[in-house]
Amino acid sequence: IERGPDREKMLPLFQDMIEGVLSVPVNLPFTKFSRGIIARRKLVPMILQVILEKREALEEQRNPQKDLITSLLSLHDQNGSSKMMSEDEIIDNIIIVMVAGYDTTSVLLTFLVKLLANNKSIYSTIAQEQEEIASKKAYEEALTWEDLTKMKYTWKVATERTRINPPVALSFRRAKQDIEYEGFIIPKGWQVMLSASMTHMDDSIFQNPTMFDPTRFDKHAPPPPPFSYVAFGGGPRMCPGFELAKMETLVMMHRLVTRFSWELLNKDESFKRIPMPEFDQGLLVHVKPLKEDGVIY
Ligand code: HEM
């Protein structure tokens, strides 16, 4: 969805909808839940319009873009005849991807911005790694996949950040049959809540769990046992956006540390999970370009 007035109209509706998804499900006027439902109702025709435009471009072979909606529209069964997804299914998938992929990455980036402002040693090691990559490229030249593979320290820091503050602290599974686990029966049909935060703070898995230590994820360090680093979930339903989130985070960190310095203006750095972590006063940052004069707020 390109930048422009249509996208601007969608943004507040998405925000209302995300709040609705994460709220107590009480459908009374003025609750977040009911605002979320109303927002979704308004969003559906807007997304449908985007789908119709992309379908037209695809059918007329008018420079169809390689985006998610176009890919979903292009899915056909094995004979190549009937379409595999209805418009309603595409709308639902677009909505879930936007809900799942928006606050998660922005929460991680926010916590990284805070970490780098407070920890000069981590900041300078990341800056050195990124400067080395930038020095081999022209100003504004796009990063390549190969460049991203060189950002090993930056990604270790991001991984440790998501261990300590997982953007998604809880997820759910429903028992398909009675399950016995450590002497307890989880009856068929019950939901089980998995807590990434508690797993990540278990000192039988991560030594000194509250200590920020990116070297836990060093190539030579013993890897955490399977399903113990679960910021992106695990198993067949593991986050399908993992690679995209990694790419967004690394590109953003590259641009930030090679072009700007910043300091925090917050007096109070406390945050609450509602249920995504949010700073009580937002994260106020004073950003300065490194190479030009002037100040950006
Ligand atoms: C730092 C960023 C992100 C984090 C920490 C994160 C974390 C998670 C977690 C914990 C789950 C649940 C996995 C499970 O139940 O086992 C999940 C699911 C999901 N994520 Fe992400 N995610 C991130 C970014 C993204 C992005 C960028 C997208 C797409 C644009 C995305 C799309 C999804 C979708 C569609 C699901 C549902 C998968 C399913 O139910 O099969 N996520 N994510």
UniProtKB/TrEMBL annotation:
Its cofactor is heme. SUPFAM superfamilies: Cytochrome P450 (SSF48264). InterPro entries: Cyt_P450 (IPR001128), Cyt_P450_CS (IPR017972), Cyt_P450_E_grp-I (IPR002401), Cyt_P450_sf (IPR036396). PROSITE patterns: CYTOCHROME_P450. The keyword Lyase does not apply. GO terms for cellular component: membrane. Its main location: membrane. Heme binds at residue 239. One of its GO terms (molecular function) is iron ion binding. It is found in: Membrane. It is a single-pass membrane protein. GO terms for biological process: sterol metabolic process. Coiled coil: none annotated. Belongs to the cytochrome P450 family. This is Cytochrome P450.
